[in-house]
Automatic annotation (TrEMBL):
SUPFAM superfamilies: Thioredoxin-like (SSF52833). Pfam families: AhpC-TSA (PF00578). The lineage of its organism: Bacteria, Pseudomonadati, Pseudomonadota, Alphaproteobacteria, Hyphomicrobiales. This is Thioredoxin domain-containing protein. Residues 10-226 form the Thioredoxin domain. It comes from Mesorhizobium amorphae CCNWGS0123. InterPro entries: AhpC/TSA, Thioredoxin-like_sf, Thioredoxin_domain.
Length: 226
């Protein structure tokens, strides 16, 4: 499948689209319009749970939930994992108060302008295509968990073993079509307007596998909280 080269992440001032997804941690559906007119919301759009880095970003967002609630801000985590697989994961790895939704088709990521990065043999056109050589030259570090900076493929394998994470057929299906899905977090105000974001898209992959500091995120939250 060829990479779409017309996707650009939503920027502050853009109106977020409505997306309707299957809820993981509760029954029924979750829609972004559920928050519109009610309260601001932090939307985390992540890869599937097969992504070791995303599992950590999801946990980090969940840890901030009490502070977000205190400021009247909602939180929604979206993962590219089929609903039953995702429910099983969170059953064994419960995160109190986590509101999560399943989006295996990655519709929400496209709606927010996050490209699905295509890995190629020798062509790089960031953020739509990247050669395997360039990808392997990237370095990622998770202090306290990795022995040091590693290429993302080796780091992912190391963290999976550390987590005792077993890749299932559902995970493999997601990896086959969305292994390079770029991710991000978007803070929407009460009217559904983007006020802040952090994505993997800018600067040729400099922010790949990273995330905002809690201080940066909560500083942005303070600007939209009433």
């Amino acid at each position: 499948m060829s990479a779409r080269i017309d996707l650009v992440p939503l920027q502050p001032g853009d109106r977020a689209p409505n997306v309707v997804l299957d809820a993981i941690t509760q029954e029924g559906k979750i829609a972004l319009d559920d928050f519109r007119g009610q309260k601001p919301v932090l939307v985390g759009l992540f890869r599937g749970l097969h992504c070791a880095f995303c599992r950590r970003h999801i946990a980090a967002q969940a840890r901030l939930d009490p502070e977000l609630r205190e400021k009247g801000v909602g939180s929604l985590t979206v993962v590219n994992t089929p609903i039953e697989r995702a429910r099983l994961y969170f059953r064994y790895h419960p995160m109190p108060n986590l509101l999560a939704a399943s989006d295996p088709e990655r519709a929400s990521h496209r709606a927010f302008g996050l490209p699905n990065l295509e890995f190629t043999e020798n062509e790089t056109n960031w953020p739509y295509k990247v050669s395997m050589a360039v990808a392997k030259d990237m370095r990622v570090d998770v202090p306290g968990e990795l022995p040091g900076p590693m290429d993302p493929f080796a780091a992912s394998e190391f963290l999976d073993k550390r987590d005792h994470y077993e890749v299932t057929e559902a995970d493999e299906q997601m990896m086959a079509t969305g292994h390079g899905q770029l991710v991000g977090q978007f803070l929407l105000d009460r009217q559904g307007i983007v006020r802040w974001s952090f994505t993997e898209v800018p600067e040729g992959g400099r922010y790949m596998f990273g995330g905002p500091s809690p201080q940066e995120l909560m500083s942005a939250v303070s600007q939209v909280a009433q």
